[in-house]
């Protein structure tokens, strides 16, 4: 039986996870047979078990075929000083523990939402790009990572940007493989004009390209210019591959192109296990825990639901079901159903209202 570990996390997490459970139940009623287990990560885990990254969660994750995570963090835990005890450490712990190095963040503009973007309709209409973010290296995990006292009332903060050849090579391969199944174009973004890691990044991406990926078109951009191009003419891109920190920022930009951060799912994948053919996977929305609206039942569940859609596709090979889910969401949006974040001041439904609409459209399609 396919198994899923559900990690609702903090803030709006439990609300959008409850919505997604209804979608899982829908597929189970059709015979999918998903076995779900729940676990704690982030602030809720810190409150319950004194750590944002409990062993019990790692054990449950080891046993599951895939993880579905909503979001972590919030003002409640802002005063925790110890880096390892902050809610985000739970999320980063999962990524690192399972070596989920390939973070696929698709930005797709639903036709009905082209006017919800802060950009002109013609700039975003039909947008379908992927930001492929390296997720287990770079400045997020590089050592040393410290704040030290250097006397005279001064402190020094150090973060370390570090990349090894193999880390760049495996994410480059992932980019070329993804692009091959799409429009065949990869744009690599770094800052080689100021960063040594940018120089190596470009070198390794180019070398990997020469190793049997010449059928894919490869371009390079400095990450700042790439950010500008993402808002100027996003449709020029197909797959953008970039490091952990640039990927964090560029994917928020890409999300906003589609109308709202509430729309963007992601998949974080590990290497394919040669023995089992399986790969570790964590699926989560790109957005955060939105503490400002938590508990009100009004959050947009689409990024969470489409994250489950990505699990159907990448972990369970249920392509037809994943496509039907995407189409059902597009149908609901085409009917004018909107949560507040994409309603542009017009009438809106709450989290469960949006979920009802998506399930009704799904029922009509399957
Ligand atoms: C993301 C988030 C995380 C990150 C935070 C919550 C640690 O912004 O997944 O994009 O910075 O990676
Ligand atoms: Mg982010």
The overall average pLDDT, rounded, is 96
- The secondary-structure element order is EHEHHEHEHEEEHEHEHEHEEHHH
Q: Let me know the number of strands.
A: 12
At CATH's second level, what is the architecture of the largest domain? 3-Layer(aba) Sandwich
CATH superfamily descriptor of the largest domain: Isopropylmalate Dehydrogenase
- Uncertain ranges: none
* Count of all domains: 2
Query: Under the CATH scheme, which class of the largest domain?
Result: Alpha Beta
Radius of gyration: 20 Å
Tell me about the biggest sheet? 10 strands, mixed
Percent of residues in beta strands: 15-25%
Kindly name the structural category. alpha/beta
Tally of helical segments: 12
Question: Fraction of residues in helices?
Answer: 40-55%
CATH third-tier fold name of the largest domain? Isopropylmalate Dehydrogenase
């Amino acid at each position: 039986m396919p198994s899923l570990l559900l990690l609702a996390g903090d803030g709006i997490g439990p609300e959008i996870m409850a919505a997604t459970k209804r979608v899982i139940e829908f597929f189970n009623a059709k015979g999918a047979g998903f076995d779900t287990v729940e676990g704690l990560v982030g602030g809720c885990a810190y409150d319950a078990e004194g750590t944002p990254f409990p062993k019990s969660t790692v054990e449950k994750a080891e046993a599951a075929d895939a993880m579905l995570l909503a979001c972590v963090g919030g003002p409640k835990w802002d005063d925790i000083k110890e880096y390892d005890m902050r809610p985000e450490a739970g999320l980063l712990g999962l990524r690192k523990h399972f070596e989920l190095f390939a973070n696929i963040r698709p930005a797709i503009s639903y036709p009905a939402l082209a006017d919800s973007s802060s950009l002109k309709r013609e700039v975003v209409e039909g947008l379908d790009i992927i930001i492929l973010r390296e997720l287990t290296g770079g400045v997020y995990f590089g050592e040393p990572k410290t704040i030290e006292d250097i006397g005279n009332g001064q402190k020094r903060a150090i973060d370390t940007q570090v990349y090894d050849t193999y880390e760049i090579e495996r994410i480059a391969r992932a980019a070329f493989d993804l692009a091959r199944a799409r429009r065949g174009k990869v744009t690599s973004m770094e800052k080689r004009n100021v960063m040594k890691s940018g120089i190596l990044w470009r070198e390794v991406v180019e070398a990997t390209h020469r190793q049997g990926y010449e059928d894919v078109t490869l371009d390079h951009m400095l990450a700042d210019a790439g950010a500008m191009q993402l808002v100027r003419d996003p449709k020029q891109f197909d797959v953008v591959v970039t490091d952990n920190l640039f990927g964090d920022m560029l994917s928020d930009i890409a999300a906003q192109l589609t109308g709202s951060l509430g729309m963007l799912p992601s998949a974080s994948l590990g290497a394919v296990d040669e023995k089992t053919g399986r790969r570790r996977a964590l699926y989560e929305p790109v957005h955060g825990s939105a503490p400002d609206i938590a508990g009100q039942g009004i959050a947009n569940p689409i990024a969470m639901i489409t994250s489950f859609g990505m699990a159907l596709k990448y972990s369970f090979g249920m392509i037809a079901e994943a496509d039907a889910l995407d189409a059902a969401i597009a149908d609901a949006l085409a009917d004018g159903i909107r949560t507040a974040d994409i309603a542009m001041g017009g009438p809106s439904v709450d989290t469960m209202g949006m979920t009802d609409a998506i399930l009704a459209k799904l029922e009509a399609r399957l």
